[in-house]
Fold:
Amino acid sequence: DWSGNTASFSPPVSPSSPGEGLVLRPLCMADFNRGFFKVLSELTKTGDVTPELFTKKFEHMKTTGDYYVLVVEDTHLGQIVATATLITEHKFIHSCAKRGRVEEVVVSDFCRGKQLGKWLVSTLLLLGKKLNCYKITLECAPRNVAFYKKFGYTASDDSYMQCRF
Ligand code: 16G
Structure:
């Protein structure tokens, strides 16, 4: 049930009217030179990633068919200004269903207020539904919980646990 999606756009934002010069599209190889990692570094440590490593990893992701990495490009600047990823994970349960994960949602600091986060997150919700995911999950900082609630995400009773290496 996706009726909990109450996110609204003001002014209206849609894939056909993203805002002057802003384009939402899948990641491509050339985005390495358009500041893709600079945007990611606003979320967490990216480490040193060479063009070769990026190419190898991205090729692998494309081969699996389970990675949907979206970017927003400011075509005037020729720079990536926001990104978000949907990953589908395969299950035996729920009649061999897929589960979706939303990861690395980042909007460049200087682009705040343009509702690019809403644009990306709502696009990934529609995509997850289209791909027949039985649920979509994400982890986020406590300050972002209210933002995701607007799209119908609810806090889970399950504990989020991790081992870090
Ligand atoms: C946030 C991100 C997650 C990312 C993590 C990186 C969203 C919705 N969540 O939780 O995808 O992997 O930050 O933090 O964008 P880390 O470097 O501590 O793993």
